[in-house]
Amino acid sequence: MSKIFALYHNEMTKLSRKLSVWILVTLMTVTAFFAPILQHRELSEETLSEPYGKTEITKARDTEKNNLGDPNRYVEHTTLRFTLQNTTAELFATRLNLDEEMLHSYVMLSCYNAMLANYDFDKYPLKDTYLSSYAYLQYTTSYSSVCRLNTEPFGKRDSQWFQAYTSATESLDLAKEALFSHDFASLEALSEKTDFFNKNIVHQLAKLDPEGKMTIEDAERIANAILLRDDYMSNLQMGVYKENNSYRPLNAEKRRQLEDSIKILNYQIENNALPTNMTSHATQARQFGQRGARFLLIIMLVIIAGSSISQEMATGSIKSLIIAPVKRWKIFTSKLLALITWTLFGSILITAFSTISTGMCYGFSSLSPYYYCSGGKVNVMPNYIFTFLFFLVDNISLFVYLLGAFTISCLTKNTGIAVGVSTGFAVTSGLSPLLIEIFGRQRWIDFLPSSHMDLVGKIFPYLNLCGYSGSDESGLFGISSNSLPLSFSLCYLAILAFILLFIAYDGFIRKDIQ
Fold it and tell me: Which of 60, 62, 270, 395 could form a disulfide with 51 if both were Cys (CB 3.0 to 4.6 A apart)?
């Protein structure tokens, strides 16, 4: 062991003296640290397209009034009678003689006047809560529908028009009640009459927030979670799951994942634990930094692994080791351990600097924990533990590229060939999705190495529920075939690693040193 350690120390010293290695390490570290900062941007507040404050609405009212003039000059009144199912209904009808542009001004002027006269801006700020903002939006929409119906000439109004007008005024009354009384029940009743809201979402929001204090952002996150949960439930009922924009039959593993995803979403909704916009931005920024830095790390590994044996054989510097009383397997082991050390060193740097940079920009609390199910219950893994495990899994592909370059280096004396072939393998590993798109889901594609290079999606199947965008493409190169179980992928990679090691070792101990 002492000789192996001495050889290992010698290899680490030689690698640490290479200027190209430190240039790549520096670029990799800078990329990991500054990429999240470049991605950082202020989260814009969700605001309404219409004015929302009393001052803004007053200014908008004055502008519309100047454009429109006296609104009464566009209005006519008469009494109309309609016969519905042998019953006569009488209506004091209004006719608005307006074109489309003037109609919009009339609608908004009327809504602004009603808001300024009846709405409590101090108690229910329009931009702060989901109930106020969407009730306001539905109020203006409903009033516009009523006014548009009133542009119909009196002579053309029939029983069908009367029914549409009655329905529109009922919706307007509910919207008024929801807005001016801050009443969630009226908004929920309105969702039963119109397609503007998803009934299930409004019902869930009313249940979680009976007083209507929930912010717009929180409500939209819950709404998106409900839609996703409903989609999962629908897939369960149909017995399918979605992969690469197509649906495939559910197997036992996928069924369990869908069931667990539904449990996780229910847990997040009930405990207000859904990932925030800040979480999504933070994880996206960190992934961006890690992917860019890992590209440089792969280049560095390919260079040092591809030249570790071939360059020394080509220059003859390895003779000093071969003629020494040291067995070749010890030399082989020390070189491999040195390469693995640099792989871990680079990966740790990337993870540490990207995490620190993201925490500085977005706050460390923005990094979401990982949610998973065990024993039928939802469990929460702290982010620092998840980051470490994610780091181990996400770097599996690095060792494959490392072994590939090292094997070619052992078989050839040409560093250019070793580096070139290894780089080409790394770059083309991302072609699996393209092959699937061209040839469809063919069995032979599942047996390509690139189909097993990214196991993040299999080991952490609920990343999309934790704020990670594009979780099915978490690795830099390659994809993980969802049609094959994790155990098969692990066995595949283990066999591949063994074969590469065997070929590299056999080539090294048999290679004649000139």
Answer: 60
CA-based torsion, 283, 289, 292, 296: positive or negative: negative
- Pairwise CA distance, residues 318 & 310, whole Å: 10
Token pair, residue 304, equals 């040092």
Whether the predicted pLDDT of 354 surpasses 80: yes
Say if residue 187 is in the same domain as residue 87.
yes
Q: Distance between the two ends of the chain, CA-based, in angstroms?
A: 28
For residues 372 and 260, the answer to whether their CB atoms sit within 8 Å is: yes
Q: Can you tell me the mean pLDDT for 33-61?
A: 70
Q: If you count them, how many residues does the chain have?
A: 514
Note whether residue 247 is domain-resident: no
C-alpha span between 395 and 291 (Å, rounded)? 11
d(CA 57, CA 459): 52
Does one domain contain both 96 and 153? yes
Q: What is the pLDDT of residues 386-400, one digit of tens each?
A: 988 888 888 888 888
CB 283, CB 15: distance < 8 Å: no
Q: How far apart are CA 114 and CA 180, in angstroms?
A: 10
Instruction: With a cut of 90, say whether residue 402 has pLDDT above it.
Output: no
> For residue 89, what are the CA distances in angstroms to 79, 80, 287, 483?
10, 8, 65, 64
Query: pLDDT tens, 156-177?
Result: 999 999 999 999 999 999 999 9
Nearest to 265 by CA among 460, 461, 465: 465
Reported as a pLDDT band with limits 50, 70 and 90, residue 46 is very low
C-alpha closest to that of 391 among 499, 261, 290, 485: 290
Tell me, yes or no, whether 228 lies in a domain: no
The mean pLDDT value of the chain amounts to 82
Q: Two tokens at 140?
A: 């203006």
